[in-house]
Design goal:
With about 140 residues, the chain is an all-alpha fold. The protein has one domain. The protein is built from 6 helices and no strands. The longest helix has about 40 residues. The chain is elongated and about 60 Å long.
Length: about 140
């Protein structure tokens, strides 16, 4: 295999990997995490938003909880589409950072914080890499976003 074909093969694998990651993680954050939080309403948003207190932000917990739910639901949908991938990944990175800090602040340790921390790094990677060639970002913005 010559070098040009090999590089093309690697590029296609990278794009396929980004697509698989976006579809899989995006689906679970949209359907399993975000949508139920959106539909649960202000009582759950208050509880979720209270986690911002661990960062010294104690005002408007219902708002912060709603924004966390929107980040997970809307961010998951955007990842599936590959639309505004980097902004969605930025929101989700912060969301998972807050969740990891919450678990640690509650004294639950790394085992309980691991899912949020692992997700945070997945979203950080998507923030850095973008949606890839097989995304609406590429189609609409030529990958500049």
């Amino acid at each position: 295999m010559n070098m040009e074909k090999y590089e093309k093969f690697l590029a296609q694998g990278r794009d396929a990997g980004l697509l698989a990651l976006r579809l899989g993680v995006g689906f679970f954050f949209f359907y399993v995490h975000g949508l139920p939080k959106i539909m649960a309403g202000p009582e759950l948003w208050l509880k979720i938003g209270g986690a911002m207190g661990n960062l010294g932000i104690h005002f408007a917990p219902v708002f912060w909880g709603f924004m966390a739910a929107v980040a997970e639901c809307g961010g998951g949908a955007l990842l599936i589409l590959g639309l505004l991938t980097r902004p969605a990944a930025a929101m989700l990175t912060f969301n998972m950072f807050v969740a990891a800090v919450m678990h640690l602040a509650l004294g639950q340790g790394l085992k309980e914080a691991a899912h949020a921390a692992e997700s945070m790094f997945v979203f950080l990677a998507l923030l850095l890499a973008g949606g890839g060639r097989w995304s609406l970002d590429q189609l609409l913005f030529k990958g500049k976003l």
